[in-house]
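Hey, weird one. I pasted the Fenitrothion hydrolase sequence into the form twice and got a warning about non-standard characters only the second time. First submission, copied straight from the form history:
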Amino acid sequence: MILAHGLGGRSDLPVPLWLALYAGAAAVVISFFALTALWKEPRLRGADAGRPLPLALQRIADSTFTRVASRVLGVALFAGFLAMAWAGPATSADNPAPAWFYVWFWVGLVPLSLVFGPVWRRLNPLRTVASLIPVRHREPPERWGYLPAIVGLLAFLWLELVFPHSDSPRAIALFCTVYAVIHIALGVVFGPRWFDRGDAFEVYARLVAGLSPFGRRADGRLVLRNPLDGLLTLSPAPWLTALVLVVLGSTAFDGLTRLPFWTSLDAGVLGGTAGLAACIALTYGAYAGAIGLTRPYLRRGFDPYPAFAPSLIPIMAGYTIAHYFSFAVFSGQQGFGRTIDYTVVSTGMIALVQIAGIVAGHVLAVTSAHDRSVGVLRANYVKVGQYPMLALMIGYTALGIALVSGS
């Protein structure tokens, strides 16, 4: 099995590339001007928003049985995965563990979190094992913020996108074992809060879960809400913006590696590492440039980096859907131990999902950013102050569509 890391290399869009680019950019621009005309005051309420769901449903979700069953299930699945990765066949053609890890788990975290909210927090086997060791916990330094999660995420992305034997069951087993030992140990030292900001996979799942229609209100009530309200409930800890931009940069690199330009370079591990770092740096630089141009229009006392960070999460989710959709549909079949059926979905449908994911992510991002802007930009500069971020999102949209088109 050759695990393709993303969706680059396709040039079978159901419409010409130029039309897809214009349509994507137009959707972002039209939504922006509609918002500036109709959305004059902040409307998103964050943790105070949401329509309560039936108490019976909340009792089931919060019951001891549900909590214990979730933890047992998470540990059992992780143990079975490690056993297969370590002791199963040595090649990915015969061992389903790589498909389980890259497709069922990594890609599956996105739809799981979008639909059901932060359920991985309960399933997380590392959190469960660490909680079984009763010791006095220390508080992790506040200045660390999401930095430990970024380190773990970069390690995973390097394994997935750069390491030449990324589909090796033994390499995956080693990575997951080392990762688990480190985070269980840190979870024992720092307690449950460690996983809230330090575990890359739990943090990533929780960020995506901010877009779920299901969530918790400030009073703990389970509610049905506007997904954009969920974004405002995320902790604005240090390094949040960098974490999201690492994911965005990695998906850009993923698309780049599918292009004939990249494949002709034969870059190797060093070239791949440099390419991944460059894509992340360029993504971060573009965002920093837009923020720099926005600063003069801000009210006093607002830091634009954390203020607009939640607006990047719909883009992150949209890019993830675009770059991993066909990978999940095709390579995910190998998790069942069967030959891939490439006829289950057409290339036209794949391209439509790719474009829809990117455009929808950017439209939601524009909406979230606009709601934030009317609260933090000076009254006379609400529209012009958003132009830098609008230009950034148009650029991200065009780049994303171009990369998934293989052009």
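That's the output from the first submission. The warning seems to come from a hidden character in my clipboard, not from the data itself. The chain has a mean pLDDT of 89.
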